Every structure is written in C-alpha cells, then in structure tokens.
Amino acid sequence: MLFARYRAMPPWEKVRMVSELSKASYEWAQAGVRLRYPDATEEQVRLILAVRRLGHEVVRRAIGREPELPGK
What we know:
Layout: H1 2-8, H2 11-36, H3 42-54, H4 56-63
Helix pairs in contact: 2-3, 3-4
C-alpha cells in the first residue's frame, strides 16, 4: 500500500518529502555533534558534518586551510 501511495504522488510532493527528510536528517546529525562536542562553535559543527560527509581532505581543500575541529 505504501508503494502504491508513492507511485500515486505527484512529483512535487515526492520532492517535498525527500527535502523534508533530508533536512530532518541533517538536524539530527547536528544534534548528535552538539551532544558529543557541547563547546563546539557553529562553524565547527558544520565542519564536522562536512568532514563526515565529504572526507577531511576534500574539506581542507575546499576551505583552503586545516579545519579547526574540537577534540583534535
């Protein structure tokens, strides 16, 4: 029944659903980082998540410096 509902959804609704799930997933990841590193700045939280997603080397090249991460 669930897959039939998905097939019947208009494309814009599917995009909206995926967007909301993606945003919720990112917010959960941020919350996890904040629990682990309560003193981390907002930039550090974003960098930690970027390193987890893209890898340290990609983030270092993208920002043009070594990322300042808590606990390092």
